[in-house]
Every structure is written in C-alpha cells, then in structure tokens.
Amino acid sequence: MDDAPIFYSFRRCPYAMRARMALSVSQTPVQLREIALKDKPAEMLAASPKGTTPVLIDGDEIIDESLGVMAWALTRSDPEGWLAHKKDTLVAENDGAFKHHLDHYKYSTRYEGADREAHRDEAMKFIEKLEARLATSAYLSGGKRTLPDIAIFPFVRQFRIADEAWFDATPIPKVQSWLSGLMTSDLFQAVMKKYPLWKETGEEIGFPCSK
Fold first, then answer.
1. Which class does domain 6-80+189-207 fall in?
2. To the nearest whole percent, how much of the chain has pLDDT over 90?
3. Hey, which end of the chain has fewer CB within 10 Å, N or C?
4. Residue 197 burial class via C-beta count within 10 angstroms: exposed 0-12, middle 13-18, buried 19 and up
C-alpha cells in the first residue's frame, strides 16, 4: 500500500465525494489523506496550488479535477460500466450553470447582491431536466447507476441541504427518489466514513476499504 497513489480529500466536498465513489466502485487503492479546507497541507498545495479537493498524485502525474480522478480510476477497473456514459451533457451543465446557481443560493451571503430565490429558481431548471430524464428510468442513463448519476447527485444533495423542507415539498418525486436511493446506497455510505486529519496524525488511510 505504501506505493499506492496519494489522494487528498475533504469529506464534505461534492467533487471529492464523486471521486471517492469512483475509486471505491473500481476498487483502485490509494493512500487517502483527509484535509481541512481551513488548514491545507503544504504538500497538497505544492502539488496543486489551487488548493481544492480532490488531488490525486500517481508518481509524476497530478490530477486535481474530480472528473479526471474518476476517469483515472475507472480506466483501471469499471465493473458497472460507468465510463460508457461519461459524455452525457448533463454533467457539464451540472458543473457549470447549476453549480453557479447552487453556490449563489446556498451561500448567498457570500455574494454581494445575490438574490437567493432567483438563483434557486434558475437552479430548479436543471432539477426539472433531471426530473424529465428520470421519468422513464430509475437512473439518468437507464436502469442502473452510471457516471452521470454519481457525478451529479452530490450537488443535488447540496441543493437539498440548503432548504430541506422546501426541497422535500417540491413536486419532483423522481429526483427525490433518485437522490434518496443514492444517498442511502452502500457505496455512498462507505465513502462518507469520517477519518482523522492527515496533517494532524500523519496517518495514511488505505482507501477504499476491502470489500
């Protein structure tokens, strides 16, 4: 395990969540280093100065984009066939317009002049696209989870967290069922385990845990 790639992660970061889920489903071993965003390790910043998670270091290769980490893991092992749907345009829309409105809705006080409800309404346009897609199948690409589901749902989870009562009362039953199923899945529960901060303990965590 000592020669496994290093993987910096922040448990609550949606980008890190989807990367951890890809690593877990592929059973690609890494040395996980849990970080705190308020006290980032110098070693991580030296590898990726932008200071966001996830960051994967595989020898001389540094991958500091979550979709890149997902692809890196899944090209090694893709038992559920996630990569077949990697070009779904919903992923780019999630990471672009939806993420923009999500941030301005959930963290409206951080943005001068942000109209929280207006950004929520704009974000809902994406949620309605998901609802329409899910009208004919349990997951975004058919009858089983694939890369678009895993890449998108951590952000929809954040959208719900911003106002759970409002989200749960909104008539989007397909999205609500899809989100609930992914949140309660064994895969997601496993990758949300809490670990001590690497900067404080120096402890390398073997991830994912063996099945």
1. alpha beta
2. 92
3. C
4. middle
Length of the chain: 211
Peptide bond between residue 171 and the one before it cis (omega within 30 degrees of 0): no
Q: Where are the domains of the chain?
A: 6-80+189-207, 82-186
pTM confidence score: 0.95
Per-residue 3-state assignment (H helix, E strand, C coil) for 104-128: HHHCHHHCCCCCHHHHHHHHHHHHH
| Class at the top of the CATH hierarchy for domain 82-186 | mainly alpha
b (16+ CB within 10 A) / e for 152-187: bbbbbbbbbebeeeebeeeebebbbebbeebeeeeb
Token pair, residue 182, equals 């992914």
**206 bridge partner residues:** 31
CA quadruple 199, 200, 204, 209: dihedral, nearest 10: -110
HSE, side-chain direction, 13 A CA sphere, residue 123: 24
- Cα-based distances in Å from 40 to 9, 20, 25, 30, 198: 11, 19, 27, 19, 10
